[in-house]
Batch of 3 targets.
Target 1
Amino acid sequence: MTSPLADIIRAEIREAGPMPVSRFMALALGHPKHGYYITRDPLGTDFTTSPEISQMFGELIGAWAADCWAKLGAPSPFALAELGPGRGTLMADALRATKAVPGFASAAQICLVETSPVLRRTQHETLRPVLEQGGYHRPRWLDSTATLPDMPLIVIANEFIDALPIRQFIATDDGWRERCVVEFQGNLVFTAAPAPLPDISILPEAAHTAPPGAIAEICPAGTAITADIARRLKARGGAALFIDYGYGRSQPGDTLQAMHEGAYVPVLEAPGTADITAHVDFEALAASAAPAAAIHGPATQGQFLLALGIAQRAAMLAQHATPGQAKAIEAALSRLTHADAMGTLFKVMAVTSHGLTPAGL
Ligand code: SAH
């Protein structure tokens, strides 16, 4: 199997030499013409996220945001930002839950950080009714966090960091080398860069003593975003919530994965047609945000949602449901919180201005 983007990548490798994994991932997801997120809405076909499983997820996060806002002294205006909002479902459910909070709707400047034109359109459609009903201002769409307004800030990011390009390194007998992609007999394959990495201090400490063959990962785009947000939180006050699959502590290992139509596929097989992600290293994110801001968690998604009252919310919804709906609510609750589904692999971490203790963490 191949793809138009694979041809473009082969041409670039012929021209410029081995392509770092980070460049490969950035092209596969974000190439302006053939990038995976640029050309399609993958939610529900290639993968399903928590807000798409149940309205309870976005509702509880809305309540979490309103609680942070109250603890900040109800600033007006404030920026309510979501990074990578997908179909807009989480934000719509959150805004439905917060529309009764006095002053919240008129104070909120909604900012959606989204690069995909396809998903921007879907977000627009999903949000339109709730914005009108709730008396919210029209949202602004931003290309990156760099242009977030300079005001108190509440940020939500669900399954956003996992989509940012990672760099990979492989331990060899004579040191660490960047993991790259080259062409071999017409196929794209992994290889190690010709020269060893001059400075291994960029690698997680846990990887320094790993044996030859080990792989280590860093996510410079992710840590740059958390560092930038932490600086903004320090300057203007606020909170940011990061939810993603990954590790509480840095550890070596290859977590690059590709998904197409709900199944894992080889990462290099047909770039642009599969979702490529990596597990999130929450220890590295926390280190980039501290000491500008306070870190809370990470907790598991199960712990966090149960602490916010998801079981009670499910019971309440079930009271007014048909038996079929009640079964679906129970199934969603279990999928979001159970260890053998999304409850444990997914972690939740908040970064806040000092002195703010967010709910659930
Ligand atoms: N948060 C949503 C969607 C997760 S999928 C949910 O939980 O359902 C990842 C989202 O991040 C998509 O909306 C994708 O278009 C967006 N995205 C990926 N890379 C991005 C980048 N570099 N900048 C902004 N948005 C990005």
Target 2
Amino acid sequence: MTLRSVIAGVGSALPKRRLDNAELAAQVDTSDEWIVERTGIRTRYIAGEGETTATLATEACRKALAEAGMDATEVDLIVLATATPDQTFPSSATKVQALLGIRDCIAFDVHAVCTGFLYALSVADAMLRGGNARTALVIGAETFSRILDWEDRTTCVLFGDGAGAVVLRAEDTEDRGILATRLHADGRHGDMLYVDGGPSTTGTVGKLRMKGREVFRHAVVNLADVLGEVLEASGLTPDDVDWVVPHQANARIIDATARKLGLSPERVVLTVDRHANTSAASVPLALDVAVKDGRIKHGDVVVLEAMGGGFTWGAAAMRF
Ligand code: UT7
């Protein structure tokens, strides 16, 4: 028997309010031209009153469950990746559980910032293959707008809010499912991308701070390396890959990483223009876009990658 974790459904959710570069340029010293040229970002979505990480996550889960043709009561594991939980505790995963009306299941948050979804997927995959659960909701959900310094043009133009979720099911199959995941962290770089507050230090939530140029440099190297690792672990070459779904931080990072591996740009899913960087939500949001518009189909070889604060970085390869 080959027990594999298969994606049975994908869903996503965005806040109602869309904020474009021109509106931002009226608030801080920036321009549409600078943002597009340096990042590829044109718009982002910003959570409003009543919209939180958990409510966006729940909406994404409902859509993923509907696509899988499943009821929430069948879920026995929820792993939610976020760096912007509704509260310090309880976990946002248990909030989603309650909102979905699930009485009893395993539910916890995973915190690896922009790499969070890859960490969550890897943990859920191991738990499903280990027999701890049969059906998981794996979620990336964030409301970074609430930890941005809206007067700091070097960061506030880059991020947005949203959520993406997949239903992951343990199936006895050789044809589909996650083939390999690879995760990394190097805490020596904690001061390159961080939040200057927290419950155990300042007692405040804090704001995001980033040394963008240094993060950029590390991102291209780390992402190309981990993509190479996950392909090798799956017995694949870059030519076997149908779709790359990268973390959507910057179109230039995505291009440079694909070029380093010899992956053609037509096979890379790009959504940073419309969503900006939604941290842990960016990979499942982009995956949902490419599944819904018909690009990613069952049987395709899909690789996911992300890199973020910590530093953390990781990748996953699957036959969708
Ligand atoms: O998700 C986690 C991973 N995060 C990332 O991957 C982000 C990685 N970093 C990046 O994407 C890029 O480094 C940025 C988009 C953040 C910045 O692009 P850059 O090409 O590295 O620009 P820079 O930081 O070198 O800044 C160039 C210039 C500076 O002016 P001077 O010093 O050359 O006069 C900045 O002050 O651009 C200026 N600048 C801006 N100008 C207009 C910085 N932000 C802005 C802005 N509008 N929003």
Target 3
Amino acid sequence: MTHNPRPLVAGNWKMHGVRESLGEVSEICAAVAGGGAGEAEVVICPPATLLMAAAQICAGTPVTLGGQYCHTQPSGPFTGDISAEMLKDAGASYVIVGHSERRFGHNESNASVREEAAAAFRAGLTAIVCVGETRAEREAGHALSVVGSQLAGSVPKALSLESLVIAYEPVWAIGTGLTPTPQDIAEMHRFIRGRINEQLLGQADKIRILYGGSVKPGNAEEVMGVEDVDGALVGGASLTAKDFMAIAGVYR
Ligand code: PGA
């Protein structure tokens, strides 16, 4: 299948960052505006507390922002939660849903991830839907079937294709310094594109499939050079402009 979507490099800051960290956002914006990411789109997903301030910094630059989770409802009695509409209002255009730290740490099921993605579309956000197997699942030879059922359960049926990004993040590679082999990444991304193609009636060439899990400046070129990898979802290495831009700079 031929495909040529615009690459995407997204930084997931997780629960890191206070106002002082906004200097990194400014540096990233300046670097991207100066051509440091080539044709790639660059998205920063800071903690929600920094979104509005980051939006002011990113205004007028090519860098866009995302949230890290959204509730399924637009508003209501849900203490501590945040809605897709609120993220949009604060300046986000993306939201990560179904990250393994939410699936495991907050017991999010495929069904709830699917509703969160649908909430993102309702609010006009692009959803980055995360999938990925655990180490035990890979060792048992179940990686493809686990990811297949996550895709079937977590991707809403009614969607606009521009509003969907898939991130393959093997749980055992997140924050560990471990990464799958390029062959394993290629196999999984090909599989994901095939499955999405079945689910979305042959449109999967328009969808970006990111790899995430211990992407660093030292391995970015190899990982992002794998067939069917349309960019990266970067955790730890997205916290400094220097490392994040070294990764996004692969597309220069
Ligand atoms: P990592 O995290 O790059 O620190 O491994 C990736 C992620 O969890 O999205």
